[in-house]
Amino acid sequence: DGGITQSPKYLFRKEGQNVTLSCEQNLNHDAMYWYRQDPGQGLRLIYYSQIVNDFQKGDIAEGYSVSREKKESFPLTVTSAQKNPTAFYLCACSGQGVNQPQHFGDGTRLSIL
Amino acid sequence: GQQLNQSPQSMFIQEGEDVSMNCTSSSIFNTWLWYKQDPGEGPVLLIALYKAGELTSNGRLTAQFGITRKDSFLNISASIPSDVGIYFCAGRYGSSNTGKLIFGQGTTLQVKP
Within 10 A of A108 (CB to CB), how many other CB atoms are there? Predict the structure, then answer.
């Protein structure tokens, strides 16, 4: 079945450590997005990519980095510069055209050890 | 970044009751989307709206794109226990040339059997 897959489901980070969250889609969608979700809040955009080898910062990009080397993959690295990384991270993708809805993965919950 | 004003923040209702929630924006939107999120999972698209005044149903769910293009509402009729979750509205600016969405802060729905 076509879909968008995030891994791992749960991730723990030590102080000073970088961690990478995986997002893979087989929907052949051009655009991919990373969001952060904190309790009681809506989704906040971290980074997005509209095409391979190109990406833009969202509203809360500081302390995060991404790459888009392949159409189907958009990994997110939470760096040691992100001082409050504990959150639920959601990846999404959307097809060609600005009005296409976004489809979400099942998220990765990141916690600090 | 801007967020939509979504209300109410939470609702606790009896099974069988109807539910109504809405989102407002100070800017004109050209797309309104409604998502549902179950605990520990990613949001799932319920209804997408693309034209002012558009009224769309999906089973017991009905959503409308406001005439002013600055608001949208979602109604759930005859609620059942599996309706429990967080409902998010999301919109796209009329001037946007990307697939970026703005999200409301969510309405948490609890249904008492």
Answer: 22
**pLDDT of chain A, 113 residues: tens digit per residue:** 569 999 999 999 888 899 999 999 999 999 999 999 998 788 999 999 999 999 999 999 999 999 999 999 999 999 998 989 999 999 999 987 777 899 999 999 999 88
Which secondary-structure segment (H or E) carries A85?
none
pLDDT tens for B53-83 read 999 999 999 999 999 999 999 999 999 999 9
User: Residue A33's closest chain B neighbor by CA?
Assistant: B100
Residue B63 · residue B76 · CB < 8 Å: no
**Residue of A99, A106, A108, A109 to mutate, interface with B, max B Cβ within 10 Å:** A99
Contacts A59 to B, Cβ<8 Å: 1
3-state secondary structure of A49: strand
Chain A positions in Cβ-Cβ contact with residue B33 (cut-off 8 Å): 101-102
Interchain CB distance below 8 Å, A107 and B31:
no
Structure letter (DSSP) for residue A73: B
Determine if residue A18 is left, alpha or beta; phi over 0 gives left, psi from -120 to 50 gives alpha, anything else beta. beta
In this complex, do A50 and B98 lie within 8 Å of one another by their Cβ atoms? yes
